[in-house]
Amino acid sequence: MSQRSVLERLASLDTNTVSDALDFLGLPGATYGLQPLWDCPKIVGRASTIQLGPKADAKPSVHLISPVIDAVQSDDRVLVIAGGADGISCWGDILANAARAKQVRGSVIDGLSRDIEGSESIGYPVYGRGVTMISARNRVVQIDSGKPVQMAGVTVQEDDFVIADRCGAVFVSAARIEEVLDLGERIAQRQDGMVAAVRAGRSVAEVMHDKEFEAIRRG
After folding, report:
1. Domain residues for 54?
2. Is 140 helix (H, G, I), strand (E, B) or coil?
3. Phi and psi angles of residue 98, each rounded to the nearest 5 degrees, phi first
4. Which of 115, 193, 197, 208 has the highest CB neighbour count under 10 A?
């Protein structure tokens, strides 16, 4: 299966359905607290992981995240940024403009953003824990990239799949994406049928009985 068809299939789902598929399979990936920081569109792509941490000295350094943006060479990337500090920004409008120029699909931050109007003004999606005005300069630095990171308690590896929408962010291991998609599509089809049944007058207690959801697992 081509990577593009995988991304198209993932984009046809939402985070609720992908979360349900992960639940059925006993897999981690759904998170809590990583929300859209403006009324931005859903993003779907492959993770470019970045680890941040506190700056330990006063020496000048390359601005965090900028080397990863400079290195982007495809149009399927989502920046997955871990290690944000309380009250301190790890994203801003200059980075957003640079990412937009490299066709990055969006950023998911386990931390905060500043200048959120700047990201919004160019239609660049940003998901995270909240907003601030306090700069990262001389406070937070990039420690590593392309390595596994912890995002709201979920381990995300380089090239894992990312989907984020108004309900939050979900990460899917690249090794398990096909089975998650297969099950997610079955769940979506089943739930569409359940909605239709309720609208047609069938008892919601009957439609939402556990046995109906177990039928999804049986395929």
Report:
1. 28-172
2. strand
3. -65, -40
4. 115
Least confident residue range of 117-121, 135-139, 154-158: 135-139
R_g (Cα) of the chain, nearest Å? 19
Structure letter (DSSP) for residue 98: H
Per the listing, tokens 């609720």 go with: 16
Condensed to tens digits (0 to 9), the pLDDT of residues 190-214 reads 876 667 767 877 776 665 666 666 6
Whole-angstrom distance, CA of residue 78 vs CA of residue 170: 12
Q: What is the pLDDT of residue 60?
A: 58
Span 49-87, pLDDT tens digits: 999 999 887 665 677 899 999 999 999 999 999 999 999
**Amino acid identity of 54?**
P
**Number of folded domains in the chain?**
2
C-beta of residue 112 within 8 angstroms of C-beta of residue 132: yes
> Does one domain contain both 100 and 203?
no
Assigned domain for 186 exists: yes
Helices 210-218 and 177-199: angle between axes, nearest 10 degrees: 140
Cα-to-chain-centroid distance, residue 15: 9
Domain shared by 168 and 200, yes or no: no
Q: pTM (2 decimals)?
A: 0.90
Q: What is the rounded end-to-end Cα distance, in angstroms, of the chain?
A: 21
